[in-house]
């Protein structure tokens, strides 16, 4: 899977203001900014992202996904 394909899957299932990915085709590192994360705990945010991938984590199409998730306000505060 390419970074573009993975980014498309995430963006299709989750409205993202920003979604950047780095990786080697199996191990991915994502930074995702979405208003959908408002009021959600970290585990809930990650579950939202995993839901966009469907069964691709179980089939090893995406072996590992490390992510940093932010609301737009949290992202703006980082800048």
UniProtKB/TrEMBL annotation:
<dbReference type="InterPro" id="IPR036065">
    <property type="entry name" value="BolA-like_sf"/>
</dbReference>
<comment type="similarity">
    <text>Belongs to the BolA/IbaG family.</text>
</comment>
<protein>
    <submittedName>
        <fullName>BolA family transcriptional regulator</fullName>
    </submittedName>
</protein>
<dbReference type="InterPro" id="IPR050961">
    <property type="entry name" value="BolA/IbaG_stress_morph_reg"/>
</dbReference>
<dbReference type="InterPro" id="IPR002634">
    <property type="entry name" value="BolA"/>
</dbReference>
<dbReference type="Pfam" id="PF01722">
    <property type="entry name" value="BolA"/>
</dbReference>
């Amino acid at each position: 899977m390419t970074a573009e394909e993975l980014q498309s899957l995430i963006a299709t299932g989750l409205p993202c203001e920003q979604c950047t990915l780095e990786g080697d085709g199996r191990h991915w590192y994502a930074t995702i900014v979405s208003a959908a994360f408002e009021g959600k705990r970290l585990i809930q945010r990650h579950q939202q992202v995993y839901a966009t991938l469907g069964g691709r984590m179980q089939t090893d199409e995406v072996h590992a996904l490390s992510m940093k998730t932010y609301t737009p306000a949290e992202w703006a505060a980082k800048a």
